[in-house]
Every structure is written in structure tokens, then in C-alpha cells.
From TrEMBL:
InterPro entries: NTAN1. This is Protein N-terminal asparagine amidohydrolase. Keywords: Hydrolase. One of its GO terms (molecular function) is protein-N-terminal asparagine amidohydrolase activity. GO terms for cellular component: nucleus. The keyword Nucleotide-binding does not apply. GO terms for biological process: ubiquitin-dependent protein catabolic process. It comes from Channa argus (Northern snakehead). Pfam families: N_Asn_amidohyd.
Length: 307
């Protein structure tokens, strides 16, 4: 169980409340973290990670300075970094397959690091809130246990999760922090929100909406965003949702209807419309090849047309 806090191995825990009781400095660190102002991120330096995605790179990357993600309610945002190499990974986890995802995140960082050199793996967890269904608490605990059971020694530095990321607004529980970013060179992790969520925002949302598993979206060796190929079956029944009111969509398509950002419903409808316009996902991936995007000199992501 090699998860450490202040260089001490963590005891077995059965709840987040027990974790914060045993390690009160985590609670204070979470209060400090959630009080920080939202970072203003230049999209031309950003690699954005959507739900059920992760991306990893190193400080040598001249195309990506910041990795970020937001719109997390019950979801958790995970940053893992090796302090020696500076290799860093950010993931947006929704609990779909935590036990298989955590080893992939560790491997993404260690494969970019010479772990025999000085340095250690440091973990930052942000997300969830005190939701009525306790989905956040379950995910918090599963992520902690999954890292605790990993063979690598991992040091928990930031733990702003569930009850420590909760605020009551007009009688409703909500997350304090919905999004974060990590500076690839310094390793600093701070709260953030984003207006640009591309490239291929609708395609990536459709992949998640139709049940896609956790995806690695970035090839740091080639500096390419890589999407797919992914598959979904034609399902015209989902057109039903386009005619429903906001409350109905929130009730049935969100894990946390009262805590979603204001654009949740419109984003969901746009994703469904995209799927209806592309009922056969094969058409989006000629010759079953992924969509590839490279950073242009102006800082935008541009799709590479493959022959």
C-alpha cells in the first residue's frame, strides 16, 4: 500500500472523513487550494482534457505548457507528476473503470521518466462534493485505494475532494472547484476554468457519451493530439432528448443535476446532435485511422489530413 502523506505510509481508510481526521493538514491544504483564484489560461498553450481522458507530457514539450480540465462535479481530476523528470499526467475520472485507469496513469508518467534518478511521484486529487447520492465519496475512496494498492510509491500532496470541495449555495451542495490546470514546467496545480475545450470537442464528447473508455489523447513524442478511432452504433432513439426540457435532461443525464454548470444542457444537446449527424462513426475515421491534430505556429490545433 505505497501511498504516502508527509513521507508516512497511509493507514487503511474506510471513508474520506477518516482520511481528513487522521491527516488534518490535508484539510487545511484543501482550504488553501480552493481559495485560490481561477487561473487565466491562454488557449494557445493549453492541452485540454475532457471527461474520461488523460494526457501526459514532459517539460521538454514545446507545444504544451499547461494541461487542464474542468466541468467536474462528481468527477475527480487527477494530476500525477514525477518531481525528477517533471513528467506529468492529468486525467478526468468519472468512476467508469477506476481500477484499470490508475495503472495507466502511473505508467504514462513512469514511461516518460527515469525513475532510478532523484525524484518521486506526487499526486494531486481535486473534485467531487457532498452530493446526495454519495457518488463523489465512492469515487474518492476508489481512487485513493487504487493508488494505495499500486506498486509504485506515490506521495499525496493535494486532496481537495468530496466534503473538502463542497459549498452550499442557496441550500444546494455544489463543488467549490470545478476545474484545474497543471503547469508542465513548474508542476504547479491551481484551480482553473476554460472557454476552449478542443480540438474536436464534439467528437470527444460523443465518444464519452456513447460509452467510450478512458483514452490517452496525446502523443508527447510527436506533439500530436490523437482522437480515436472510436465506434458507436446508430441510435436514432437519442433524438428524443432534443425535445425535452432542461429539468428532464438534468434529471436523467447528469449524476448531479443541481450542481452542473449552466451550459450543461446545451452541451448535451449539441453532443446528441453530433451523434445523430454521424450515426456511423466509421465515417469520421477514414481507413480506421485516428484524427490527428498538431499545434500551428499561431498556437491553434490544426487537423492533419492523412493520405
Amino acid at each position: 500500500m505505497p501511498l504516502f502523506i508527509q513521507n508516512r505510509r497511509i493507514d487503511c481508510i474506510s471513508s474520506t472523513a477518516e482520511l481528513f481526521d487522521k491527516y488534518p493538514h490535508l484539510k487545511e491544504n484543501a482550504r488553501v487550494f480552493r481559495s485560490k483564484p481561477l487561473a487565466d489560461i491562454d488557449p494557445k498553450q493549453l492541452l485540454y482534457v475532457q471527461q474520461r481522458e488523460f494526457a501526459a507530457t514532459t517539460p521538454a514539450d514545446d507545444c504544451v505548457s499547461v494541461i487542464g480540465s474542468d466541468d467536474a462535479t462528481t468527477c475527480h481530476l487527477v494530476v500525477l507528476r514525477h518531481t525528477g523528470s517533471g513528467a506529468v499526467c492529468l486525467a478526468h475520472c468519472d468512476g467508469s473503470s477506476t481500477w484499470s485507469e490508475v495503472p495507466r496513469l502511473v505508467k504514462a508518467v513512469t514511461s516518460l521518466s527515469d525513475v532510478s534518478n532523484d525524484g518521486r511521484l506526487e499526486l494531486h486529487l481535486v473534485g467531487g462534493f457532498d452530493d446526495e447520492s454519495k457518488a463523489s465519496h465512492k469515487l474518492s475512496l476508489n481512487i485513493l485505494i487504487a493508488f494505495q494498492n499500486h506498486k509504485e510509491d506515490i506521495h499525496l500532496e493535494t486532496c481537495c475532494i468530496t466534503e473538502m470541495n463542497d459549498i452550499i449555495v442557496d441550500g444546494t451542495h455544489r463543488p467549490v472547484v470545478y476545474g484545474i490546470c497543471v503547469n508542465v514546467k513548474s508542476g504547479d496545480v491551481v484551480p482553473a476554468s476554460f472557454t476552449y475545450k478542443g480540438p474536436a470537442e464534439e467528437l470527444r464528447s460523443a465518444r464519452t457519451f456513447t460509452g467510450g473508455q478512458m483514452a490517452d489523447i496525446y502523443d508527447s513524442s510527436q506533439r500530436l493530439v490523437k482522437i480515436g478511432p472510436c465506434k458507436w452504433s446508430p441510435n436514432l432513439d437519442i433524438a428524443f432528448w432534443l425535445s425535452q426540457d432542461d429539468d428532464t435532461i438534468l434529471k436523467y443525464l447528469s449524476t448531479s443535476p443541481m450542481a452542473e454548470p449552466p451550459y450543461f444542457v446545451q452541451h448535451t444537446k449539441s453532443t446528441i446532435q453530433f451523434i445523430l449527424e454521424h450515426p456511423n462513426s466509421d465515417s469520421l475515421f477514414p481507413a480506421s485511422q485516428p484524427q490527428l491534430y498538431q499545434r500551428t505556429e499561431s498556437g491553434d490545433w490544426e487537423r492533419i489530413v492523412q493520405q
